[in-house]
Structures are given as structure tokens and as C-alpha cells.
Specification:
Layout (H helix, E strand, L loop, with lengths): L13 H19 L10 H22 L5 H30 L2 H15 L3 H8 L15 H23 L4 H19 L4 H6 L5 H16 L8 H18 L12 H13 L4 H7 L2 H8 L1 H19 L5 H28 L3 H22 L10 H10 L9 E5 L2 E6 L5 E6 L1 H4 L2 H10 L6 E6 L9 E3 L5 H13 L5 E5 L2 H5 L15 E4 L4 E3 L6 H17 L3 E5 L31 E3 L2 H17 L2 E3 L2 H4 E2 L2 E3 L17 H7 L4 H4 L4
Parallel strand pairs: 3-4, 3-6, 6-9, 9-11
Antiparallel strand pairs: 1-2, 2-4, 5-7, 7-8, 10-13, 12-13
Length: about 650
């Protein structure tokens, strides 16, 4: 009987562990000290190339040798991936139960289950949106990259095995997958940037860069034999360029990802004998970090996130440094006493225990996500506050529609057509339109919500992360000017753009965030920039142009600020001890700068012929603005949006614009 096939493994290379160290230290660096190493997140892309190279070497070498064993391959993957991951998931879940609030605990449960099932990238992609929680509050966000790799480990052996059976040319298969994936990447990076970042279809090409190198090393090593020293220098220069040039606001991965991926390609291609590989990448310190790179990657992010949650903001540098040192210690302990032991064990029971442990972790996460497993902090008022935090129903009750190729939401069938044009501060009145459709359907005009969160309804105002804002805004302005529309409501978080955005910032550059672009130059909003005034002039011009043709309403803004955020009520007590929920006063002072803007906008409406829709009389009296009802029920969902329950019942100021006759 022929012996069962076994896996061919590449010879150990210390320089690859050194490259792993550069990758993981870059990621840890950018997460802990983003102002020091802003492009450090490209370390993930270096990991992708390394994984593609090593896994493809194993698969191709085994297929060309005594045969490839899927069972042995996946058994090794489990022993490699599961031990440290089970530890981190269990620790994150246990600590989360102890310190998190109800909505945070529910989300963590979802992420634990997704992490255990290696679909975290799909989970985070599905959550992405205007009201998504900040990345810095998700302890398991970093598992998206591990999910991409595991999905590659599942699909790539099957595809290469099929290619081997069908006698397809392996380089052609690798190039085809790489080209298709890279094409999806560059075609979607602007139109669907979140999908391009998280989904395997736009990321597999990075692993294919390593896969192609594996084939070259196995079959065409002579192509790499010359200039190894130059290859190593080029590789490290490309990686260094990526660390310096790439920013979180860059269209990434896109074309930018070629810097770290080609850098990793050339570093590996240079081989262990190249001088930089031998003297730098193979150094004892880098190899040491490379050996613990996987558990270090797993541990560092939850520690930093929980530190942020406990501090209710970015921790000081000392706390972040301590979190990094703790993650290094935990990584070494995980590697030394758990990971190595599991990988070296030949007992079948080890595999069963690891799989069972992962299933149990996934089940606990699912129980938390479905609220069958409650968090520790259980004050009944926490539930009331959390209900407010999650009370956002837009676009529920509205029908998706398309006008001139642009997606909008529609409600009502009246003779009068009304277009609501703005950002989420206009979307928050969607529930009021739904309520009118229920209680007075014959009075409701044909109403279109042409809104987009974070997209300022002022020509010339940009924010780099909102890549399609200008295109959509231009289309909606054309529609607003069209004779098919009888009335236009323009509303936005004016306090965000003209007050909050103009505040000085020690950490952000003048042209980061919102800015006005005049066709030649960016005009920042903060630190004395003239962008806000140019934006105000742009709004004035738009209102004048629209008011000359049709009825125009200017929706004024509700007060905003941390003092309106329901979660401020949860800051009493300690997450590590007893969480005492604060019962604060129902009102808070109207911020003077916001009142000044309010008066200026009223003057602007009078000047341009726009009709004012004013929520302030219902919210503020004698410069005191309500944030809760008298019994303590919050009327805001966060620091600047009114909750849906409030606008549904009390947002009647907008009725004048939504009805068939004004």
C-alpha cells in the first residue's frame, strides 16, 4: 500500500520572520501611536504576501511531490491558528462581559462569533456606515485580515488542486486570479471603498503576489539569482515609502497597496543570503518579534481598545505604551506555552480540543449577540439609555427609488413633489414623514429623501473619506432645479460644519476633515482657515438659485454636543466596579456659538428668500435646551442626532414642507 501523501514544507528562513516583525511592529505602532507611524497599517499587506508565498510553496511543492493532503494541511492550519485565537477570543469575551455596556456587549458577541467562524471581514463590512461605531471601540476589528487569510486557505488549495487535476498551467491560474482580484480592487476602491478594503475578492491579489513568487522560487530560481542585494534594498525602500506616504485617508488598498506588496515580494525574493536580509532581517531581535508576530497581532488591538473604552477616549501615551508591553508579554507567553505545544503535539485529541473550544467560543458569542447572555452592568436605566442610542429607524418605512440614475427614498403620492436634500440631520426626520403617511396619507406630498450622511449640501465642500459625495451632491442639485420638483428642503448639521469643524485641533492638520475646494486650492475649516466662510457663501448662492425657481425651505439645526449624548449618563461610576447611571438635568445651556450660527442662518434665509423650518422653539427656551424628557428619557440618539421616537412624535416643524399645500 502506498504511503499517504504528506506536505512539503519550505526550509525555515529567519529573514522571513524578520519581515514578519517589520509587519507586526508597523501595525502595532500605528495603532498605539498613530501620529508617529501613520502608514503602519500596511503591515497587514506584508503579512498577506508572506502567507501567499508560504502556503503556495507548500501546496505546489506537495502536488508536484508525493501528493497534497487536505486533511494534513487543514490540521496544521488549526494547530497554527486556533490556539492563540481561542485565548484572545475567550479573554476578550470575558473582559467584555465585565466592563461593556449592553449595546457594546451585544456587538462584541457578534464579533466573537464572526471571528470564530472566520467571517469577521464580512461582519465589519456589513456594519460599515455613517452610524457605525468607531473602529477604536471594536476589540476584534483586527480579525478581518485573519478572516481574509483563512478564506484564502480554504479556496486556494481547492483551486490549485483542481488546476493540477485538469493539467492547467499553474502560473496562468495564479496570474488570472491576481489580475481579476487586482482589477476588482482598483475598480471598487472609489465607488465601494469599504468593500474593497474588507472583501476577499479585492484582497486575494496580494496573496497571489506571494503565490507567484513561490512558483518562481520553485521553478525559475535563476530569475532571482542576480542582484539579490539590490532586490532586498528595493523591497525595504518600497515598504518604507508605504509607511511614510500612505495615510488612513488614502484610497487603500487600490494602487497604493503595490508599495508594501511589491516591497515584501522583493524582500523575500532576495533570499536569506542577501546582505540586508542576513544582517537586518535575520537579526536576533527581529526574528524574536517575528516568531511571536501572530499572537502579538492578536493581543495588541483588544488591549488598546479596552484601554480606550475604560478611559472613555484616547489613553495617554503611557497607558498605550503599557498596553503594547503587555501585548508583547502575552504574545510571548501564548507562543511559548500554548502555540508551540499545540503545533508540536502529534495527538489527535489536540485537534478535537481546539475545534471544540472554538465552537464553544462561537456559541457564547452568538448568545451574547442575541441578548441571551447578558452583560454584567444591569441597571434598568442602562436599557433605557441604550434604547435611545439605538433608536434610528431611517430609512424604515420609505421605499427605495431611483431618479435620474441616483438612489433616493420615496414616500407619499401627493400632487406636490418635495425633495429633501442634505445629510443625516435631514434623514432624522424620515420617521416623521412615515408617521404622516400613517395618520394623514392624503395630506402627504410626494416626498423624496435625497440625503447622504456626512455629505454637506454645499457645492465645493469636501471630505476625502466621503469619496462620492460631490458626484451625488451635483446630481441632487440638478434634480432640485428640475421642474419636476415643486419644493426643496435643504438641511444639514450646520453646527457640525460651521462650529464643530472650525475648532482648533492639535492632532489634525488644517486640511484634514472638511475643507472647501475652489478648483485650485483647499481651504481648511479649522485653525483660522477661511473654508467655513467660503462654504457659507456657497450655501447662500445655492439658496438664491433655488429660491428664484421654486419654494425653498432651510431646515435649521438642533443643538449638538457631548452634553446631549445619552451615553454621558453612563459615565458615572466605574466600568471596572459598579456602573452608576447618572440622572442628569433635563436641560443644558445652548452653546453660544451655535446660537450665533442659528441667528445667522435665519438672516441668510430672509436674505435669499428661503422659508425657515425651525426646530429650536420646541427644543430650547431661555437659552436652555432639552436633552431628556422630564422623566429622564433621552431625546437624542447621540451627541448630535435626535432619536427617531422624538422626531416621529414631536418633529412637527417639518410638516409644513411635507404636506400637499403649505
Amino acid at each position: 500500500m502506498a504511503p499517504p501523501p504528506h506536505l512539503v514544507h519550505p526550509k525555515y528562513r529567519a529573514d522571513i520572520d524578520g519581515l514578519r516583525a517589520i509587519a507586526v511592529l508597523s501595525v502595532v505602532g500605528v495603532h498605539a501611536f498613530p501620529d508617529w507611524l501613520r502608514g503602519g497599517f500596511i503591515g497587514v499587506d506584508i503579512f498577506f504576501v508572506i502567507s501567499g508565498f508560504l502556503i503556495s510553496t507548500i501546496i505546489i511543492g506537495s502536488l508536484e511531490g508525493e501528493g497534497f493532503s487536505y486533511r494534513a494541511f487543514y490540521a496544521r492550519r488549526i494547530k497554527r491558528i486556533f490556539p492563540a485565537l481561542v485565548l484572545v477570543l475567550a479573554a476578550s469575551l470575558a473582559f467584555g462581559w465585565f466592563v461593556l455596556l449592553a449595546d457594546e456587549w451585544e456587538q462584541l458577541g457578534k464579533h466573537v462569533a464572526a471571528g470564530a467562524a472566520f467571517v469577521s471581514n464580512f461582519a465589519f463590512w456589513s456594519e460599515a456606515g455613517y452610524f457605525d461605531n468607531a473602529a477604536e471601540t471594536k476589540p476584534l476589528l483586527h480579525l478581518w485580515s485573519l478572516a481574509v487569510e483563512e478564506q484564502f486557505y480554504i479556496l486556494w488549495p481547492l483551486l490549485l488542486g483542481l488546476a493540477w487535476l485538469r493539467k492547467w498551467n499553474p502560473p496562468a491560474v495564479i496570474l488570472a486570479v491576481a489580475a481579476l482580484s487586482f482589477g476588482i480592487n482598483v475598480l471598487t476602491i472609489h465607488s465601494h471603498p469599504t468593500a474593497a478594503f474588507y472583501l476577499p475578492a479585492s484582497r486575494f491579489w496580494e496573496l497571489m503576489v506571494g503565490g507567484m513568487l513561490a512558483y518562481i522560487v520553485l521553478h525559475r530560481p535563476q530569475w532571482l539569482s542576480r542582484g539579490r542585494g539590490l532586490q532586498s534594498i528595493l523591497g525595504l525602500l518600497l515598504i518604507a515609502s508605504g509607511l511614510v506616504l500612505i495615510r488612513s485617508g488614502s484610497a487603500f488598498p487600490g494602487w497604493w497597496a503595490l508599495l508594501p506588496t511589491l516591497g515584501a515580494f522583493f524582500c523575500i525574493a532576495a533570499g536569506p543570503s542577501a546582505w540586508l536580509n542576513r544582517s537586518l532581517l535575520s537579526s536576533r531581535v527581529l526574528v524574536g518579534f517575528g516568531l511571536i508576530s501572530y499572537p502579538l497581532y492578536l493581543w495588541h488591538w483588544p488591549l488598546l481598545v479596552y484601554a480606550r473604552i475604560l478611559e472613555d477616549g484616547t489613553p495617554n501615551r503611557r497607558v498605550r505604551l503599557l498596553a503594547v508591553l503587555a501585548s508583547i508579554a502575552l504574545a510571548w507567553l501564548s507562543y511559548r506555552f500554548v502555540e508551540r505545544a499545540a503545533r508540536r503535539s502529534a495527538r489527535a485529541a489536540v485537534l478535537r480540543v481546539l475545534v471544540i473550544a472554538m465552537v464553544v467560543i462561537a456559541a457564547l458569542g452568538a448568545l451574547a449577540a442575541t441578548q441571551r447572555l447578558a452583560a454584567r452592568h444591569g441597571d434598568p436605566y442602562i436599557g433605557q439609555v441604550m434604547a435611545a442610542v439605538k433608536d434610528w429607524t431611517y430609512p424604515e418605512g420609505l421605499a427605495p427609488a431611483e431618479v435620474d440614475g441616483e438612489k433616493v427614498y420615496r414616500i407619499g403620492h401627493g400632487a406636490r413633489t418635495v425633495l429633501l436634500f442634505g445629510d443625516s440631520h435631514l434623514e432624522q426626520y424620515g420617521p416623521r414623514a412615515v408617521e404622516l403617511a400613517r395618520t394623514a396619507p392624503d395630506a402627504l406630498a410626494t416626498t423624496y429623501f435625497a440625503t447622504w450622511g456626512g455629505c454637506a449640501p454645499m457645492p465645493g465642500v469636501f471630505e476625502d473619506k466621503n469619496v462620492d459625495c460631490d458626484k451625488r451632491r451635483s446630481a441632487m442639485i440638478r434634480l432640485a432645479l428640475d421642474s419636476r420638483v415643486d419644493a426643496v428642503v435643504i438641511g444639514a448639521c450646520w453646527n457640525c460644519y460651521f462650529v464643530k469643524q472650525t475648532l482648533p485641533s492639535a492632532t489634525l492638520a488644517d486640511n484634514e476633515g472638511y475643507y472647501f475646494f475652489d478648483g485650485r486650492k483647499r481651504h481648511g475649516f479649522r485653525n483660522g482657515g477661511d473654508g467655513a466662510e467660503l462654504a457659507f457663501a456657497s450655501l447662500e448662492s445655492l439658496l438664491k438659485e433655488l429660491a428664484a425657481r421654486k419654494t425653498v425651505y432651510l431646515m435649521l439645526d438642533n443643538p449638538i454636543g457631548d452634553e446631549f449624548d445619552p451615553k454621558r449618563l453612563l459615565l458615572g461610576g466605574s466600568r471596572l466596579g459598579r456602573m452608576d447611571v447618572t440622572r442628569s438635568t433635563p436641560t443644558t445651556p445652548w452653546p453660544p456659538a451655535q446660537k450665533q450660527l442659528y441667528l445667522r442662518l435665519r438672516e441668510l434665509a430672509q436674505k435669499t428668500g428661503a422659508i425657515v423650518i425651525d426646530p429650536v422653539p420646541a427644543l430650547c427656551k431661555d437659552d436652555q435646551c432639552i436633552r431628556t424628557t422630564p422623566d429622564g428619557t433621552p431625546i437624542y440618539k447621540d451627541g448630535d442626532h435626535l432619536r427617531s421616537d422624538y422626531t416621529r412624535r414631536f418633529g412637527t416643524e417639518i410638516d409644513v414642507a411635507l404636506k400637499n399645500s403649505r
